[in-house]
């Protein structure tokens, strides 16, 4: 029995999350010794660490490595950490998303005084704490897709989530930031408690934590434990529904995104969402396939409710309301979560291959949504209240930023020239049809049409005649003013090279995916597990 507790360790396999965590600790220690004027070194160190973690995915591209495995003399071979194709794709997504978030965060963690001696409109974030928390969360997010037992899965989920609470509330003295952090904390803690309760029930019914063993034992649970197993499955799914912001567990999203620092909101919209969906995929497809007749219909209904609620709420956003741009993107992310749920629900009816459609859609969404947040962060430098109306005539002041934002919004809407957005939506639609979920495909088609209105309305505003916004923010220049704002915009671009680089990288990635959509869409037809 003692020999079964000995597990093998493949250090190269676990290198990406381990390196990210090691850099986080290095940044935390270095922060104690660096003077304030050199804190920016911490940001570039974090970026270098994330880039190195991404590079470590290359030796693992075969997708055939596992570690922390039970010894061969056990009845079933099971591993706690598996670097298969699914793991590598999600790790690529979360580490690249964290890297782009780091680029967006460089200015926010640097105190500076603009020309004229006015204080910066951006809230300063403490560099040491910020980079440590971001890297810690990214390490947990990179660990989660490789987790193949419930204990590791829950630990990875919390390592990704706990630093995010602090990141949301890191703007000291900001009431909205504190309120956003509290709402995010309460909803996430509730989700964790429900998930742990469900996992404990599943363990009690099956006697194992490994996902593959759970899948085998759930089919022949003794009659007296059947109710316990069903309750465990249901509670675990509810816990991950919180993490994915599925309706009715979505109430924390708009206030959290609006109150968080913009780079953190971008991070939550992509990496945070990837964490929730990854966990949901692992527990449904890998651990609970024998309960597909339960979670399949439930996820189909959640998908329909989520995409509808998100699109209707985004449709109702007032363009003159403060932070309406961020709120619209927040509600848009809820709607996108509904689309991402469709292939997972379809997998219950037609097999695991449908999961690839969720992965393909997530790759597209991550690129264009981070790009949209990058442009919003750029505009927020001179229009800190970030209303949709502030983008009126942006093309006259900054043609490149306006064209980039238009490209990202059209991708999210699924319209040309963003071909990848259209193809990704068609792939998800096909997954629903192939699974016999015709009613869900109809609901999705109607929601895509609804979403066209608010995406196109914002896009059209970028190219309208510049004019004064209804309410000027103190010390701010209208985003669309043709002359003075043009000069301010040029100065803005010169002083925000990291944000400009993030916009350029996401725009280039979106263009490549639109020109060669097979790169992402091939995952829709590939067996990932």
* Mean pLDDT across residues: 84
Order of helices and strands: HHEEHHHHHHHHHHHHHHHHHH
- Number of beta-strand segments: 2
Strand fraction band? under 5%
Report how far apart the termini are: 30 Å
Number of helices: 20
Low-confidence stretches: 112-122, 468-495
Task: Kindly name the structural category.
Answer: mainly alpha
Q: What is the 3D shape?
A: globular
**In what order do the strands lie side by side in the largest sheet?**
1-2
Biggest β-sheet: count, sense, barrel?
2 strands, antiparallel
How would you sum up this structure, described in words?
By secondary structure, the protein is mostly helical. Helix content is 66%, strand content 2%. The protein contains 20 helices and 2 strands. The protein has a two-stranded antiparallel sheet. The longest helix has 32 residues, at 175-206.
Give a quick set of tags describing it.
529 residues, 20 helices
List the helices and strands and how they pair.
Blueprint: H1 15-30, H2 40-55, E1 65-69, E2 79-83, H3 85-105, H4 127-143, H5 150-168, H6 175-206, H7 211-217, H8 226-243, H9 253-259, H10 262-287, H11 292-315, H12 324-350, H13 355-380, H14 394-397, H15 399-413, H16 419-434, H17 438-462, H18 484-495, H19 497-515, H20 518-521
Antiparallel strand pairs: 1-2
Helix pairs in contact: 1-2, 1-4, 2-3, 2-4, 3-4, 3-10, 3-13, 3-19, 4-5, 5-6, 5-10, 6-8, 6-9, 7-10, 8-10, 9-10, 9-12, 10-12, 10-13, 11-12, 11-17, 12-13, 12-16, 12-17, 13-15, 13-16, 13-19, 15-16, 15-17, 15-19, 16-17
């Amino acid at each position: 029995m003692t020999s079964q507790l000995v597990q093998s360790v493949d250090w190269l396999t676990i290198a990406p999350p381990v390196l990210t965590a090691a850099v986080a600790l290095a940044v935390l220690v270095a922060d104690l010794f660096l003077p304030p004027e050199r804190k920016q070194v911490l940001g570039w160190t974090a970026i270098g660490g994330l880039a190195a973690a991404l590079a470590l995915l290359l030796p693992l591209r075969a997708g055939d490595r596992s570690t922390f495995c039970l010894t061969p003399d056990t009845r079933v071979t099971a591993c706690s950490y598996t670097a298969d194709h699914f793991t590598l794709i999600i790790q690529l997504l979360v580490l690249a998303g964290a890297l782009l978030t780091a680029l967006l965060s460089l200015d926010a963690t640097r105190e500076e005084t603009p020309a004229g001696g006015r204080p910066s409109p951006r809230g300063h974030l403490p560099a040491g704490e910020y980079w440590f928390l971001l890297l810690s969360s990214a390490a947990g997010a990179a660990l989660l897709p490789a987790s193949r037992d419930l204990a590791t899965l829950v630990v990875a989920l919390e390592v990704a989530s706990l630093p995010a609470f602090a990141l949301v509330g890191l703007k000291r003295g900001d009431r909205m930031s504190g309120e956003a952090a509290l709402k995010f904390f309460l909803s996430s803690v509730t989700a964790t408690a429900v998930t742990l309760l469900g996992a404990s029930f599943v363990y009690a019914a099956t006697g194992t934590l490994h996902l593959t063993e759970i899948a085998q034992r759930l089919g022949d649970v003794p009659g007296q434990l059947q109710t316990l197993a069903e309750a465990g499955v249901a509670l675990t799914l509810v816990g991950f529904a919180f993490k994915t912001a599925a309706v009715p567990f979505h109430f924390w999203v708009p206030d959290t995104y609006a109150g968080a620092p913009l780079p953190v909101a971008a991070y939550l919209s992509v990496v945070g969402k990837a964490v929730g969906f990854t966990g949901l995929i692992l527990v449904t497809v890998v651990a609970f396939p024998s309960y597909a007749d339960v979670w399949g219909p439930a996820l189909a209904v959640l998908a329909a409710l989520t995409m509808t609620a998100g699109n209707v709420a985004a449709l109702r956003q007032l363009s003159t309301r403060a932070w309406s741009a961020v709120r619209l993107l927040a509600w848009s992310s809820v709607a996108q979560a509904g689309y991402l749920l469709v292939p997972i629900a379809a997998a219950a009816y037609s097999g695991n291959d449908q999961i690839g459609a969720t992965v393909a859609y997530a790759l597209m969404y991550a690129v264009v949504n981070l790009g949209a947040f990058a442009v919003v962060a750029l505009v927020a430098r001179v229009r800190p209240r970030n209303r949709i109306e502030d983008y009126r005539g942006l093309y006259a002041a900054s043609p490149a930023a306006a064209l980039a934002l238009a490209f990202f919004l059209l991708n999210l809407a699924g319209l040309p020239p963003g071909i990848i957005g259209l193809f990704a939506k068609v792939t998800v639609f096909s997954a629903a049809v192939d699974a016999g979920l015709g009613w869900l495909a109809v609901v999705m088609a109607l929601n895509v049409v609804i979403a066209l209105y608010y995406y196109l309305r914002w896009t059209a505003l970028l190219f309208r005649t510049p004019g004064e916004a209804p309410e000027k923010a103190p010390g701010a220049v209208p985003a669309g003013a043709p002359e003075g704002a043009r000069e301010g915009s040029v100065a803005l671009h010169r002083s925000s090279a990291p944000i400009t680089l993030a916009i350029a990288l996401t725009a280039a990635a979106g263009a490549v995916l639109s020109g060669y959509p097979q790169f992402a869409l091939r995952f829709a037809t590939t067996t990932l597990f």
